[in-house]
Design brief:
heterotrimer, A alpha/beta, B mainly alpha, C alpha/beta, A: alpha/beta, ABC transporter involved in vitamin B12 uptake, BtuC, Rossmann fold, 2 domains, four-stranded antiparallel beta sheet, 11% strand, B: mainly alpha, two-stranded antiparallel sheet, 15 helices
Chain lengths: 595, 345, 246
């Protein structure tokens, strides 16, 4: 967040502008405000969530047309009569309709690859445009006129200067809600959508739901903007809701800085002013009339994506002195913990697990148990099938045959999110952290399932109590693995060894009874390895069961209680570390040989 | 509706469907090789048709200036990077394709009067002018972002689409054009009369699809493209450069696009922005093929053509709505049948 | 003691992924007609080294000379054109294409530079891998693990490389097939191609190689003629971690 005096200055500017600016400039600023609302939604969807939509203008249109129709219709059926006449009812109805459409589109496309959502929204947006233009009761291509003015606190908003305050109040509310949301448990889940889906699912985040949520929010922001538009203009027709406008909204979000909420305002401002200016000059320059600003916008956007993919906002932000971040370690009452299981209880029991990929048998007849309070190591040469086994156990993949029991339940067919809920937590061989998020926030994703407050409380910041406890828990785990000094640094700035320990801290935030660690010692220095071993021993002492996949034999031998050795997808040895290490079959497997 | 009307609509639907099928095949190709969702494909349809129309009325098409301009920019970009990395041996090729070639095309247009040339020569000249714009677009817009996510590439596509539509308006104006039919004749089968142009469209589409199939199955460059689509790293390790594969697929796509435009120009009036909707209908077909299967994409596109023809009879105002709503059951089916593993960036 | 003309010289090579350096100051040489192996436990940086040499990864420091020429731009296609071929750990076959088409594409660069006798080379390659000839019309995706590795090798040979780089050719293969693969690798020496072999299967690699490097956590820990390293207890240590516990 920027220093407070900048925000304050911005507010003062907003308050005074309508009093001093010309009619023309106030109108321009009104439009910038309306566009900003839509662009903020797109920043959330595209820049942060990594999804995109070419249908935002259509959602704006839904908002506008709904209120236009309801406030002007003279022959509403009796059951809908209560919606007629009042702009606020129009807003309510618009929100409901938009939500339904967005939910349907989202559910249809979001299970597919990321590019089906934009393609679906293109189709939706064209359909709706033609629908607006062809439906008799919506006035066809001429549209609907005579929409009543908005009344706020008894004040009738007849002129642009008054409306300015309404629009910009909504803009600020939209910014506030979005910033709040991003700084919360749900927000961390949303921020994990871009590049962290597998990790987030393993931490118990329902990523499909998060995707639907941001698509819904973006659509609703569009709807509100359309509602304001309809009552500002007092008439609607299909043109401003066409796909071209959707594309322009996307330009605003990308140009301003797709991952920055405030960037949406910059983008909306730049595009709106530039468009105004180009529409004046280009036809004169080219000697023909038409929307030639599109050529400039297209080329400009390609240039921005090639040269400054983060848009204008980060460049501007660099000009402002860096704000001082409050670096107090979060303190709060600890979260409730699960009762530790009795020592020696079998937590994980894999029976005759077979995994085939086509004709290839990656795991054959694998048996494996992990008890509480023990460290079990799964070792073997490269390509032996350890990672496949690991994925079958944690629900990232499913076994072809056999069964996996966890905490007494059959979890063979459950996905990683459901297994996480039962108390299994894991780390990844290829570190899966969100590089731009802080160490603390990365760890806090691990505690996702220990909170319950949803999106609405997060947007309104009504969940601060729970949030403080989640962050305090994350801070405790970060401290525990020895990363206290780096707590507020971006995770991407850590060395590889520290990133691996952060993965463990994140896994521990879930309060697991079983910890699955995929090569935790790879890339660690000698002292770091010793500290890691110490930490794992301590966890074992607390009754946590640990399954370790490792290549570093030295590390495993000093630490594990039992070892299972795999080769060619099968178990070739099992036993105490010393036994396994002297086993000729194991030596052969590791050193190989052709004789 | 009687059987005659049904046959007539079917004929219409097949004609348009054949064009959509060609486009959908090109879209699947471009996506498989480069991961680009090629929205600007439609602009090549319009450019092809309108360039031919310009020749026929004795005007110099604006696409010539685009070819020259894009050639100069590509040459500048390529030359500067060749000089920076010290690879001077590429210079003749860069100058040849990007500066000399457009100059030759301009020379030909200047020397001959295209309006008086036979139709075939006009078509060849239009293709010679429009098709190279495809690889140039790839070079300027996509190649610097070849490693970016599908999402970024999609946004680039939309930006390219907008820029090209704007240029189309600048070059050809807001009025539409319709070119004369390739031949006057028609074919009568019982009570059904099939227009000559319909036969041209169907024949040309079929020929093009066969030629494409042969290209992919029989030539080493066709195989190289398929290899890139299957395993990018593997292809690179064989020396098949991603850039070459990208340019080649864009070349094919713009050839298919421009030719499609030329084929339908006698059937419907083409405006500077008509291509977008035509291209998107190809997309609906491509989505039926899940952006990966050529036969399914072509079949889906034919279905789109038929659906469009019949809905224009029953509810002509809503035909676009109906066509684009077709995507919904397709998406439902896709989302129920695929178990999608998220790509991580 | 190594006076053979070098095909590949790597000097002071460093490679980083972001802030993490995966390879530190590596020096390595492959002479003409030699088999040189880089062995070491998993995660030591072996694949990273091959990728950097091939141009798949940018180097943060160091020089790579191929046939005496300093490699300037990190372009994979350029390296292939100059005569270096990499068979990656994943094999990177074109699964939905026939064996024959896979092989044909192996000769793509030669085809582009005007050498179009792929049929002749294919016959030579089939002499080395008679199994592939039997399966020439089958899709690569339907082959067994051993056959896939053979196809990957054969495909690389289609380019008539001067330097062949093999990344873990024995990975995931049953012992008998590993034996087959290594016999082929040893026999390739007669064709005059230089081979850089990256392996985890240390004994097999040392048996076929002339010279070996042991890579451990991104650094070359040991090097020498293979015959000397084969009995060196330090090699065993670096694999089984026995050294650290004394």
């Amino acid at each position: 967040m920027q220093p407070h005096y900048l925000l304050g200055g911005f507010l003062v500017l907003l308050l005074t502008v309508p009093q001093i600016a010309s009619e023309f400039h106030v109108t321009l600023l009104n439009y910038i405000g309306l566009y900003s609302i839509v662009a903020i939604g797109l920043v959330l969807l595209t820049g942060i969530g990594g999804l995109t939509s070419f249908g935002q203008a259509a959602f704006v249109g839904l908002g506008g047309y709904t209120t236009a129709y309801l406030t002007t219709a003279t022959n509403l059926p009796a059951w809908a009569a209560f919606l007629g006449g009042a702009p606020w009812m129009g807003l309510l109805a618009g929100i409901v309709i938009t939500a339904l459409v967005a939910l349907l589109l989202g559910l249809l496309t979001l299970r597919l690859s990321g590019h089906y959502l934009p393609l679906g929204t293109i189709a939706w947006s064209i359909s709706l445009y033609f629908l607006f233009g062809n439906l008799e009761f919506l006035g066809g291509h001429t549209g609907i006129t005579g929409i009543p003015a908005l009344t706020v606190f008894g004040l009738v908003m007849m002129d642009g200067r008054n409306f300015f305050y309404v629009i910009w109040a909504v803009v600020l509310i939209a910014v506030w809600l979005t910033v709040n949301l991003l700084d919360s448990r749900e927000g961390r889940a949303i921020r994990a959508l871009k590049g962290g889906v597998v990790m987030a699912e393993a931490m118990g985040v329902d990523t499909a739901r998060s995707k639907v949520v941001i698509f819904l929010i973006a659509a609703l922001f569009g709807c509100v903007s359309g509602w304001l538009y309809a009552h500002l203009q007092r008439f609607v027709n299909p043109t401003p809701f066409s796909i071209n406008m959707s594309i322009e909204y996307l330009f605003m979000a990308v140009l301003g800085g797709a991952a920055h909420v405030w960037g949406a305002l910059i983008g909306a401002g730049v595009i709106t002013i530039l468009k105004q200016w180009l529409q004046d000059w280009l036809p004169r320059l080219l000697g023909a009339s038409g929307n030639f600003e599109m050529i400039v916008f297209g080329v400009l956007l390609i240039y921005v994506l090639q040269r400054a993919r983060d848009g204008i906002w980060p460049i501007l932000a660099r000009l402002v002195p860096q704000p001082v971040v409050v670096r107090a370690v979060p303190q709060a009452e600890p979260l409730p913990r699960k009762l530790p299981p009795d020592k020696g209880l079998v937590l994980l029991d894999a029976r005759k697990v077979v995994k085939r990929f086509g004709g290839l048998v990656a795991n054959n007849n694998m048996n494996l148990t992990v008890k509480s309070g023990e460290i079990m190591a799964l070792i073997g040469p490269n390509g032996a099938g350890k990672s496949t086994m690991f994925n079958c156990l944690s629900g990232v993949d499913q076994a072809t045959e056999g069964e996996v029991l966890f905490a007494g339940r059959d979890v063979t067919r459950l996905d990683s999110r459901e297994i996480a809920r039962l108390g299994m937590s894991r780390t990844f061989q290829h570190v899966r952290l969100l590089g731009t998020m802080s160490v603390l926030e990365n760890a806090a994703i691990g505690a996702h399932l220990r909170g319950s407050k949803g999106v609405l409380p997060a947007m309104l910041h009504l969940e601060r109590g729970e949030e403080a406890r989640l962050l305090a828990e994350a801070a405790r785990q970060v401290e525990r693995v020895g990363l206290k000094d780096a707590m507020f640094e971006p995770a991407g700035s850590l060395a590889l060894g520290q990133q691996r320990t952060l993965e463990i801290a994140r896994a521990m935030c879930a309060d697991p009874c079983l910890l699955l660690l995929d090569e935790p010692a790879a890339g660690l220095r000698y002292l770091e390895k010793q500290a890691l071993a110490e930490l794992l021993r301590k966890l074992r002492g607390e009754g946590v069961g640990i399954l370790l996949v490792e290549h570093d034999m030295d590390f495993v031998m000093g630490l594990a209680d039992r070892v299972v050795v795999m080769e060619f997808g099968e178990k070739i040895a099992e036993g105490l570390p010393e036994e396994v290490q002297r086993n000729p079959a194991v030596i052969e497997a590791y050193l190989g040989g052709v004789e | 509706m009687n059987i005659e009307i049904a046959l007539l609509l079917g004929q219409d639907g097949l004609t348009n469907g054949a064009i959509y099928a060609l486009l959908s095949v090109a879209l699947v190709l471009v996506f498989a090789v480069t991961r680009v969702i090629y929205i600007p494909q439609g602009e090549f349809v319009a450019f092809g048709a309108l360039t031919l129309a310009s020749f026929q009325v004795g005007k110099t098409p604006g696409t010539l200036w685009l070819l020259i301009g894009a050639g100069v920019v590509v040459a500048l970009v390529d030359l500067s990077s060749a000089l920076r990395s010290g690879q001077r041996r590429h210079i003749p090729r860069i100058v040849g394709w990007n500066l000399a070639y457009p100059a030759v095309v301009a020379g030909v247009i200047h020397l001959f009067t295209p309006a008086e040339l036979p139709l075939l020569a006009q078509i060849v000249l239009s293709l010679a002018l429009v098709v190279p714009l495809g690889p140039m677009t790839y070079r300027l817009a996509y190649q610097p972002l070849a490693e970016a996510s599908v999402l970024v590439l999609l946004i680039v596509s939309v930006a390219v689409h907008l820029a090209l539509v704007g240029l189309g308006l600048l070059f050809f104006g807001a009025e539409g054009s319709r070119t004369p039919a390739f031949s006057e004749g028609s074919l009568s089968v019982g009570s059904l009369t099939v227009s000559g142009q319909t036969l041209w469209v169907l024949g040309a589409s079929l020929t093009l699809i066969v030629v494409l199939a042969l290209f992919f199955e029989r030539t080493i460059y066709g195989k190289a493209l398929r290899a890139t689509a299957m395993n990018r790293t593997g292809a690179r390790l064989m020396g098949i450069s991603t850039v070459m594969a990208g340019k080649l697929s864009f070349l094919l796509a713009s050839l298919i696009g421009a030719l499609s435009g030329i084929l339908i120009a006698p059937i419907t009036t083409i405006y500077y922005d008509t291509g977008f909707l035509i291209g998107l209908k190809g997309f609906v077909g491509a989505i039926v093929g899940a952006l990966s299967s050529y036969p399914l994409a072509a079949a889906g596109a034919l279905l789109v053509g038929l659906l469009e023809a019949f809905s224009s009879f029953w509810a002509s105002a809503f035909k676009e709505v109906i066509v684009f709503t077709l995507i919904i059951p397709v998406l439902v089916w896709l989302s129920l049948t695929t178990r999608h593993v998220e790509e991580e960036e | 003691m190594r006076e053979i003309a070098p095909v590949l010289e790597v000097e002071d090579l460093c490679v980083s992924y972001g802030k993490v350096e995966a390879l530190h100051h590596a020096n390595l040489m492959v002479g003409a007609g030699q088999i040189v192996t880089v062995i070491g436990p998993n995660g030591a940086g072996k694949t990273t080294m091959l990728s950097a040499v091939m141009g798949l990864l940018p180097c943060s420091r160091g020089q790579i000379r191929f046939q005496g020429q300093l490699r300037s731009a990190a372009e994979v296609e350029e390296m292939v054109a100059l005569g270096a071929n990499l068979v990656p750990e994943s094999r990177a076959l074109f699964g939905e294409m026939s064996v024959e088409d896979n092989l044909l594409l192996g000769a793509f660069t030669r085809y582009r530079s005007g050498d179009r006798d792929s049929a002749g080379t294919m016959e030579e390659v089939f002499r080395i891998f008679p199994r592939l000839k039997e399966r020439r019309t089958q899709h690569a995706g339907t082959l067994s693990g051993g056959e896939r590795q053979m196809l990957a090798l054969a495909r690389a040979l289609m380019a008539k490389p001067k330097l062949l780089m093999l990344d873990e050719p024995s990975l995931g293969l049953a012992p008998l097939i590993v034996k087959d693969i290594f016999r082929v690798i040893a026999s390739l020496k007669d064709t005059g191609v230089a081979i850089l072999l990256v392996e985890q299967n240390a004994r097999a690699a040392l048996q076929v190689a002339d010279y070996a490097y042991v890579l451990e956590t991104g650094e070359i820990a040991l090097e020498g003629p293979s015959r000397q390293l084969i009995d060196d207890p330090k090699v065993v240590e670096s694999y089984l971690g026995l050294g650290g516990r004394h």
